[in-house]
Every structure is written in structure tokens, then in C-alpha cells.
Amino acid sequence: MSTNRRKFLKQFGSTILLSSAGLSSLAAKEDMDRRILFSEKRITANDKIRIATIGMGIMGFNDTYAALTVPGVELAGVCDLYTGRLQRAKEVFGQTLFVTSDYRQILDRKDIDAVIIATSDNWHSRIAIEAMRKGKAVYSEKPMVHYISEGLAEIQAQKETKAVFQVGSQRVSSVAYQKARELYHSGAIGKINSIEASFNRQSALGAWQYTIPLDAGPQTVDWARFQEPEKVKHDYDNNRFFRWRNYREYGTGVAGDLFVHLLSGIHFITGSKGPDKIYSIGNTVFWKDGRNVPDVMSAVLEYPDTKEHPAFQVTLRVNFISGEGDRSTTKIVGSEGVIDLSGEGDGFTLYKNKMPVAPGIGGWDSLFTYPEAMQKQLMANYNKKYSATDQATPATDKILYHAPDGYNASNDHFANFMDSIRTGKPVVENAVFGFRAAAPCLACNDSYFENKVIHWDAENMRIV
């Protein structure tokens, strides 16, 4: 056993804080052990995977870094529509790196096994379908589609080509979310009834006002190709290219960027296929910078009773000017407890609260409003019917779970993707799962802009 592996396993065991209530860390340790053994496995020439990244913005660079943490993965090329990012890619990954502004040149390369699609949302589906038809494995950033109408065609393309296709919502690979799912399905919180999930931010960068390069302009940006999918063409605009998330034409707003993360985690834990009713409201409260999507948005999604779960309600919220600061949480509420997940898969706290057998009497109750003699009789009847044990609230301990220091769910997500390429095993987030997470979020946009309730058929993945 290597020193690093031994140190990491020791650290992993020490960072899980568990109560005596019966949650065992054995399964989590075994899973981490398997991952570490896999990461140390000697990679042969035949096991090597050559990747290329299409779209070298924030997610493109970060996804590339995460992919290269997997042994045996090599970067063969990158594509971007801004020349400065191609220059930067060569600075970071080597001057011999193949770079281009035309993604089709990437897809035509026979020595490239897989592509990461990290472009603006309006290009996700088109490039993914072309890549699968060219025989490439595809890692598509979320949301996998720009419009709901694109989803079924992309799913069909994956079925026809049998290409390895994974959507990039890293919570699905998080060890914390895996353990939360185990607890949920074991009945640790009783019967689910509601979920509250939110993303809060309080910074210009968090609100997508990203830094614009000094040489930005039509001479360094392939503006025509960027807006090629759009029916309405605009004159070149720095903000529309470098801050595209702020515009419906190229992005999907807070719903497509952040609600998708929340729903991916929720669906993974609960096994749900999705809601049947969706309604959202919002506003541009603070960041009045020309964007045409809200900076504060809330949605209510109704999940019906299905074979996977009882009926429950989900509330989603994003606030880009929150006095709480940068914070994300998902609270899965059941009849006997709550799983409170924080961050991007860093850990969770499980709170147990079980009601006593007896319904209670006195205190904030109408008992004191009755005649004194009647009060005494009611109390006597109550104590005769319910024992002291029945009247006591069951004692419970909270459970804390923390992933190891330095743990990164994105690295695990890419490790799972590469493992599927090498072994043929199913990916952890396929096109159907990815679309079922994305579509209700995009429906939140439809609800907001059209001011109506959206009815969704989660089984058949279509708007009713």
C-alpha cells in the first residue's frame, strides 16, 4: 500500500463523524478504497483516453483539469471562439497542443476518443449529437439542452450510436450524496414530504459579471459562429459573448445553471423521475446590467405519488444578492428527520425528530380555556390512556458526515466517465437522467416568462 493511499484512507476514516445511532462508515470506506485502488491501477497504452475540450471558458478549463486527474487521460486538443483562450491553453497544456476555433476539426480527429462540451448552452445539444455520430464519447456540461424541445432527439442519438454519454452534474458522483441516498432509502428520515434547496451568492463574479479581456472584439472573437444557432442575430457585444449566461439567447439563466445542480442531486437521492407541476416567479432585483434573465428566482415543483416515492413538494431558490453570502443547501424533509446537505457534495447533517406516541396535552393548547374541573378530568384521562414512555419524545442523535479534506466530486465524476469508456459499464448520469433534471428547470424559465403553471410528463419527458 502506497504512503499516499494509506494516509488518505486514514484521513477519510477520521473525517466521518457518526453518532451511535447505527450509521456505519464501512460502505463509504470500501467505496473510497475501491476508487483509490482504481486511481493507482497501472494504465497500459490501450487504456489511454485522448480527450478534447470544446469551449475553454471557466468550466472548460476546470473540467479539463478534473479530467486530467484520472490516470491515463491525455489532452489532445481544445476549441474556443476567442483566440486568447487558445493561447492560454497552449501556455497551460503545452505549445504543441492542437487548437482550433472550429469544433468540427476536433470531431474529425481520429485520435480523439472523447470530448468535453463546455460551450454556451445554445451549442450543447448540437455538438453532442454530432460528436456521438462521429464515434466520440461525450461529457456534456449541464444543462444538456438549451431548449426542452432538444432533449428527446439527443436521447435518441445516444441510443442509436450507443456512445458513452455523461452529463456534468458532479453531485451525482459525490460520496456524500451516495451516503445520503443510502440513509434516505433506509428510512432514516421517515416518509418524505418536502425538499427545500437554494443557491445564494453575493458578488459581481457570482452574478456572472466576469472579467472581459483587453483585446475583446470582432478581431479576436468568432462572433458569427457563436450566435449561429440563433434566429435573431445581434451586433457584436462583449457582454453577450463573455457574460453569455446573462442572456436567454445563449444561456438558461439561474434555472439552467443552478436549479439543475439542485434537481440532479434531489433526483439522485430520491430516485425520482421528476415533477408533474412547475411554477416559478422572479425578478431582476439588483444586477440591472442589461441581462434579460432574473437574478432572484423561486420555484415550486410538485412531485406526484409514484412507485419510486410518495408525493412531495420541492421549493428551489436562487438569490444573487443575498446578505447570507455564498451558500448552497438542500434540505430533504421527512416525517421523522431531515437530511441537510451543504455545498457541492462536501457533507451533510441528519437531524432526527420523532413524535411521541401520545398527542400531547397542555402548553400551547386549548386545555387552559376549559373549566378547572374539566381540565383535571381531561388530564386524568390522558395519563390513564398514555404511559410516561408514550408521552416522552424519543431521544435522537444527529449524524454528521464529511467527505475527506480536499475531496472533489468533479474528479470522481470524470473518473466514473472514463471508467465507462474503458469498461463499457453504464455512466452515472446518462442522457435520460440529465434531461429529466434539466427539463423541469428549463420549464421554470417557461413558467416565469409566460406567467403560467407548466405541466410535465416525467415518465415520457414531455410538456403536457
Automatic annotation (TrEMBL):
One of its GO terms (molecular function) is nucleotide binding. InterPro entries: Gfo/Idh/MocA-like_OxRdtase_N, Gfo/Idh/MocA_oxidrdct_glycsds, GFO_IDH_MocA-like_dom, NAD(P)-bd_dom_sf. SUPFAM superfamilies: Glyceraldehyde-3-phosphate dehydrogenase-like, C-terminal domain, NAD(P)-binding Rossmann-fold domains. Residues 49-168 form the Gfo/Idh/MocA-like oxidoreductase N-terminal domain. The keyword Protease does not apply. Keywords: Oxidoreductase. Gene3D superfamilies: Dihydrodipicolinate Reductase, domain 2 (3.30.360.10), NAD(P)-binding Rossmann-like Domain (3.40.50.720). It holds the Pfam family GFO_IDH_MocA_C3. PANTHER family: BCDNA.GH03377. Residues 231-339 form the GFO/IDH/MocA-like oxidoreductase domain. This is Gfo/Idh/MocA family oxidoreductase.
